[in-house]
Amino acid sequence: MNGKRITIYDIAEELGMSASYVSRALNDHPLVSEKIKEKVKKKAAELHYRHNSQAANLRRGSSKTMGVIIPHIAQSFFSEVIAGIEEACTENQYSLIMCQSHDSYQQERKAIDVLVRQNVDCILICLAEETQSTQHLEAVKNSDIEIIQFDRCIDKVDTYKVMNDNSEAALAMVRHLVAEKYKRIAFIGGPEHLLTFKNRKAGYIKGITEAALNIPFNYIVENALTKEAARQAAIKLLSLKHPPDAIVTVSDVQALAVLQLAESMGIAVPQQLGIVGFANESFTELVRPTLSTIDQQSRELGRQAANVYFKNILKEDVKFRKDKTIVVKSKIVMRQSSQKKMVESSKTKAGQFSQKA
Amino acid sequence: MNGKRITIYDIAEELGMSASYVSRALNDHPLVSEKIKEKVKKKAAELHYRHNSQAANLRRGSSKTMGVIIPHIAQSFFSEVIAGIEEACTENQYSLIMCQSHDSYQQERKAIDVLVRQNVDCILICLAEETQSTQHLEAVKNSDIEIIQFDRCIDKVDTYKVMNDNSEAALAMVRHLVAEKYKRIAFIGGPEHLLTFKNRKAGYIKGITEAALNIPFNYIVENALTKEAARQAAIKLLSLKHPPDAIVTVSDVQALAVLQLAESMGIAVPQQLGIVGFANESFTELVRPTLSTIDQQSRELGRQAANVYFKNILKEDVKFRKDKTIVVKSKIVMRQSSQKKMVESSKTKAGQFSQKA
DNA sequence: CTGAAAGCGCTTACAG
DNA sequence: CTGAAAGCGCTTACAG
Lengths: 357, 357
Prior knowledge:
- 2 copies of one chain form a homodimer.
- Chain A is of the alpha/beta class.
- Chain A has 3 domains: 8-51, 434 Repressor (Amino-terminal Domain) (Orthogonal Bundle); 63-164 and 297-328, Rossmann fold (3-Layer(aba) Sandwich); 166-296 and 333-350, Response regulator (Rossmann fold).
- Chain A has 13 helices and 12 strands.
- In chain A, the strands form 3 sheets. In chain A, strands 2-1-3-4-5-11 form a 6-stranded parallel sheet, with helices on both faces. A 4-stranded parallel sheet of chain A has the order 7-6-8-9, with helices on both faces. The first copy, chain A, has a two-stranded antiparallel ribbon with strand order 10-12.
- The longest helix of chain A has 16 residues, at 76-91.
- In chain A, 46% of the residues are buried.
- Chain A binds chain B through residues 1-2, 5, 48, 50-55, 57-58, 63, 65, 72-74, 76, 79-80, 82, 86, 95-100, 114, 116-119, 139, 141-144, 256, 282-283, 286-288, 354, and chain B through 1-2, 5, 48, 50-55, 57-58, 63, 65, 72-74, 76, 79-80, 82, 86, 95-100, 114, 116-119, 139, 141-144, 256, 282-283, 286-288, 354.
- The structure holds a DNA duplex.
- Chains A, B: GO terms for molecular function: DNA-binding transcription factor activity; transcription cis-regulatory region binding.
């Protein structure tokens, strides 16, 4: 509004003291008396003074700002992660800047650029589906900005990694399906170059092997993370001569695609087809049947990722840092889409399911 | 990693030229030859130089950064708005910093503080449900940072405002319900100090008046924006001696609360109760019955809000600026939850609805 | 308890 | 086409 910006010099002048002293008063320096602090702050408010972090950061060399890059803010998994990160930032008086990559490698690069230019102290990143090249991550590592991967990580990039027990979670899901008497369990996966999806697949394979199920090679579809790709994959699976009676996915969006497809094809879920997702998105309990899934403890995942910076990195000697993977335990959430037995017993009892199985 | 940060002075020294010239080369100044630009950029990359926006901004006085504050990133309405803002920012080579208020006044204040300190050029804000005091907004107005309200606005704060045709949208909804032969149409609203909700209510009242419906005073519930508040409001409404046969809400979350309550009470939707929401959240077409709602054209709303800054403010003479409200037209989305007639006719034809109406 | 001075890294009139 | 110099607004050793 008014032309010139108010600085500590203006306050100093009005109050007949030095700018350095004003700066100390404003920053609650212990050697400045309460009385003076009050006086200075009052005058600052009066003049509509506002602190300029950029100048302070430039001088101090640290911005007390953390950056986070996620594929999509619209998914509740990510917004929960963000909530966890926000908590940790607030506790440590850090600001948070968030960017989304929209699962695009190009936009991810741009986001990194924005954060680097904003001089954040640390970047938390959950990689875009597309990301295979790692030079943008290596470039950050070559700067004095810390970078921490979470959820979707590339193994060979040597950073702290905060991830779920993905393999165990997928294994637990397969065991659950086996217990529910599903026998022909297929898999729709994500891009294998991301450790996360590789591990989920490994868990699936382990479960299949453990149960000694005989799975045709074409029951395993890789790299179908988008809703449309998952839909196409499911169409293929369900039109096989011997279609699967259950489908394990690596994300709730995929599971939703399968569920909607099944509905449109008149396939009864869970009776004819069991479906399980991953992430415990908020929509999973709104759809019918409700979707069985994995609760990734997203808020906790976010907290831990941020705390790697606040605790492991800020408080430890840089020289002794080593690559380290932090594992956040997940929980299986069993709902209707995979509980064949429950439906069958209730059908016998009450007959409230009218579709034939 | 390495101790000292690389600056343009380091590049200048290595190349035997001045820092100013390096700066110009890096910024594609027209008076620098392509050859030299290339040389400088190559050396910059080689030295892992990274531009320091903070220093540049400090010098330049503008950060080319926009800030946005929304209540929750987890709602698809807001993430779509953000997408629209991102588009406009990208087109104008601006960075975007987003913050969420979690509908809390305190957190909204903090968010403003963060953005002011980051020296953003402009703040776009959708107010928290709680926000009644406006001094934090006035404080921004007293600085050289522009502030633009969108979606949820306080009328008396003199800024550009970008909003939907909220009154018309609510009116259209009531007309639709009337056409569907609903007669006892109740209303669950939001906080009236926010213009948005005031307008939606006005539209509802207009529709009721227009249809000459006789509505008891207790059919109108105000200030019940959270899911739980809406649920409580619906419980009261539905346990009246003469309960409503339709409920108009001002948000999809409220509508979802009503829908879930109806389901648990065994009330058939839309046959016994019509329900309409607002915002066209992504879950509205996942629930059963699907929810009728208002498509707020959220992406366009975001674009327009950002463009008020890029077009109206940046390109016009500041002195001639006036308070102005930009209206984004919404669209009614009719789905199952309010279409009694369709259900009834299909029931007659095929008898596929088993619940009694 | 208080101040003078330097410097963070950049851009940009000014001068040549 | 190129450089020297000032200054954006702050913090912080250093000195008293």
